[in-house]
Structures are given as C-alpha cells and as structure tokens.
Amino acid sequence: RVLMSSCLLVWCLSSLLITNRLIKGGKRTKDDPEEINVAVKRSRRIVRGHYNFRGELIVMPDIDGDGFDNFDSSPTEMNMEVGVGRHDKSLEFLIYDHVVVGDQFVNLSRSLGVTLATQTSVDRLRWLPQSAKTWTGPISVAVFVPDQEFDIAQAYISYLRSCFQSVRDNVAFSLLHPIQKPPRSARIETTNWLFPCSDPLSVLTSLTRRVFTREYASWRTGYNYPQNHLRNIARENSMTHYTMSLDVDIIPSPGMAKPLSMFLNGNTCSKCAFVIPTYEIHDKASFPANKPELSRLIKMLRAQPFHSKVFVHNQFATNFSQFTRPQDDSVLHVSHNVTEFEFFYEPFYVSLDTAPRYDERFVGYGFTRNTQVYEMNLSDWQFRVLSPIFTVHWGLQKKKGRPTWRERQNSNNRKKFQHFKKEIFAKYNKDYLKEARRDLENEMKHNKNKTVKGYKRVQNVPRSSARIKS
Q1: Which own/partner pairs from 51-57 qualify as long-range (CB within 8 Å, at least 24 positions apart)?
Q2: CA–CA separation, 254 and 243 (whole Å)
Q3: Taking Cα atoms as reference points, which of 221, 55, 53, 201 lies closest to residue 129?
Q4: How far apart are CA 219 and CA 232, in angstroms?
Q5: Distance CA 73, CA 62 (A)
Q6: Nearest CA-CA partner of 462 in 442, 414, 434, 454
Q7: What mean pLDDT do residues 419-426 have?
Q8: What is the 3-state secondary structure (H, E, C) of 359-378?
C-alpha cells in the first residue's frame, strides 16, 4: 500500500509539472517579437470575411484635432466579421449588431433609461455629432452600408470617434447591407490626406465622391432604402425600456435627456407615446437653445412646423398652436393630447419599447413611419405632446415635384397597405367592414366636387359602393 501510494503521488506531481510547462509555453509575453509584428501589421480587426472580402480597408490618414478637447487618435476597431451576421425575416439583408459600442453607452442606458434610436445612410452620418452634442444620453445608430459604402463607414466612424468625445462615449453602431451588395473595399488612396475635426462635412464629401460614380449613384438613388429595417435594428440594439425614434437629421433640443428621463421615470401610462414637436429652422438661423428662442424664430418666420409646406398632414395632428400657447414650462410636462388623429400622421415620439415594430414590407419612401403610428392608434395607444422640449430639422422645406423613382416607391407601398390594413384589423379584432364603409364615404366626399379639366361635372356613384351594398 505504501509503495502504491508513493507511485501515485509521483505520477500526480509529474502530471502537474508537465501541464504547467504546457500552459507557460502557450502564453506569449508582451515583448514577444512575433506578437509585436502581428500587432503592427493589423490596423483593424476586420481582416477577413466572406464574399471575397480581404480586409483591404481605407488606411486612416492623419486627423487634425487642433482645438478639440479629449481628441483620441487611436483607430476604431469594429467587432464583426464580414458575412457573419443575422438575417432579416425576408433573408434579403445581413445585420451586424453593436459593431462599435461607446465607452459610456451601457452606463448611460442604466442611469437614464431612455435611448435615442436613429437610422441613417453613410452620406448622412455627418449629422450625428450634432445629435450627440445636444442629446447627452445613449444613442443607438443603425447604418446602411451596401457595397463600398461599408469601407467609407468604417473610416468615417473612426474619424467621428476620434474627434468627438460624445460620439466616442455615447453612441453604439449597428450595420446592415443587402446580401446582393456585400461589403467590398473602396480602394481609396489617402496618402497625404488630412482629416480636420472642424469640418465633418468636407471629410465625408471627400470619401463619398470617390464611390458615388454616376453608375453607382443611379443604383443607389432608386434603391428601396430599408428605413423600417434600420429603425427596428436601432430599437433592438438599445438597452432601455424607453426609446425615442428619430431620423439622423432630426436634432434634439439641448439638455433634454435628463428632464425627459425624470419625466418618464414617473410615467404610469403603458400605452402612451409622448410626441416631441419638430420644427424646420432656417439654415442661417442659430440653433434655438430653448423654447423661448424657438418662439422668437417662429415670429421671425425663420422656423415652421416640420413638413408644413411640403405635406401638412404629416405633423398636423400635433396641433402646434397648442404647443406654442403660454403655459408653465418650468418643468417638462404634457402640453396637450392629440385628439384629431390623421392617417398620414408621422410624429417623432418617445415611448416604451413595447410599441409595435415598423413593418419591414414597406421599403423606400411612403407608408413607412405612418403605418406604424396607424397601428399604434388602432391598438389604443394615446399620443400626448410634450413641452418645452422639441426637435429641429435644418432648412425650411418647400413643396416641389417628386422624382419618378420616389413616386414609384410610394405607389408600390400604397399597394401593400390594403393587405397590411386587413392584417392589423384582424390582429386587434377590429371591424374592418365598418372601416371600409368609412373609407368609401371619405372617397365620395373627396370626389364630389372634383371636376376633371375639359369635362363637365357628372354625378356618378363609384363602382366600389355597389359592391359594398351587395
């Protein structure tokens, strides 16, 4: 027994010694020359992937951070592998979640409880620093990156994070591209380039104009931009109970994150969408710091309700006259309720993330945001307008003709709407026949006094009415 115990002890000790040597042999020290060479050669982690992507990314030039506090020159690395993501329901797009996460994104999500969820194409990323400046909470951004635009995105996101601490700290990026247009290198030579932090627009323009050739721009302009996919991705990648869904060029008023967080913390309504009034501001006007400054710009005709000159039904139900009336704005509060809902109503709002998702059948332009709001209204959500906070869109828009590609997309989505409408009426157990009769009455009222040029007015009963009566 003593002999067997001794042999067993020797065997155990020898096994431990061998294991220890193997572990030490597998580790490399910081001074290991082979490891140093690998680190020097690798400027980004995206060095491999599918779709024959070989990681030939744009080499980041020097960035001029003069006058920018807390400038960080280190390049941003994306936590992803090209071609390895998740598919959307239609299997047309590939999604990469949280490829870059801001240093304070998680902490801000926990402390504030509300996230700005926004979507954008690469050529509009220049607006992001403005939102990150005025909104001090977490921001979840979904970016559309087809083809060579992926390469531009990775370079420009790295530039923004180097120059703007608010982007580096607060913003989480997610990406989406069509499976038929996978990422590839833009092959842009950046030798002797200098990216100034003071001019994000010129930097982005320098990158995009080398990719947006006439042929590519023609495809890109007429492409069915997946707005609703991106909106859903931005919401899904937030970490809070509340999300504020905005487009990237809609800028929140300064200092609204903490008051909004406090207001929502006391909210007891589980089916309330809190509308944030949106105004267009003249390009040469100063950004209004508060509601009194906004009111002054309105009186000077340098600010107007969003889309009021382009498509009045877009925001009309918000009732801006109620928002601008004298009231106690010492604390953030509900100014008034939306009482006259309209079908084409598309407010920007903050709500619990239990709100219906955006229907991804609607791509391109038309019936994208308003169908989601329509479903909310049908499922008994209430819309309440907040004050004194607001959002801003730069430029006073004027009505102009639609390009053919936009009208085509709008027409395609209009055809999809009737099927969508029947689905949600069944989903929420509503009387679709009653709604169909109401639609017919509205159509008859609309056509009653409508005279076609060159013809006399004729009192005709629409064929659709005969079908419903029968």
Answers
A1: 51/82, 51/83, 51/182, 51/183, 51/184, 52/184, 53/82, 53/83, 53/182, 53/183, 53/184, 53/185, 54/185, 56/185, 56/187, 57/151, 57/154, 57/155, 57/185
A2: 18
A3: 201
A4: 24
A5: 8
A6: 442
A7: 93
A8: CCCCCCCCCCHHHHHHHHHH
Q: What are phi and psi of 430, to 5 degrees?
A: -105, 160
Contact 172, 102 (CB under 8 A): yes
Produce one character per residue of 9-36: b if its CB has 16 or more CB atoms within 10 Å, e if not: eeeeeeeeeeeeeeeeeeeeeeeeeeee
CA angle (49, 51, 55) in 5-degree steps: 45
**Is there a contact between 88 and 185 (Cβ–Cβ < 8 Å)?**
no
Tell me the average pLDDT across 382-388: 98
Q: Is-contact 348 250, C-beta < 8 A?
A: yes
CA distance 61 to 72: 14
Please enumerate, as own/partner, the contacts of 423-426 that have beta carbons within 8 Å and a separation of 24 or more. Answer: 424/374, 424/375, 424/378, 424/379, 425/378
Are 260 and 401 in contact by the 8 Å Cβ rule? The answer is no
Closest CA to 417 of 379, 366, 341: 366
Q: Which residues pair with 93 in a beta bridge?
A: 178
Alpha carbon distance 163, 171 (integer Å): 13
pLDDT tens for 269-322 read 999 999 999 999 999 999 999 999 999 999 999 999 999 998 889 999 999 999
Q: What is the largest CA-CA distance in the chain?
A: 119
SS3 394: strand
For residue 139, give the H/E element and its range.
Answer: strand 139-144
Which residues make beta-bridge pairs with 385? 275, 336
Per-residue pLDDT at 138: 98
383 sits in which H/E element: strand 382-387
Place of tokens 């009566």: 469
> How far is residue 114's CA from residue 230's CA, in Å, rounded to a whole number?
18
Count, residues in the chain: 470
Pairing type for strands 278-281 and 93-101 reads unpaired
DSSP character for 59?
P
User: Quick one: pLDDT at residue 71?
Assistant: 87
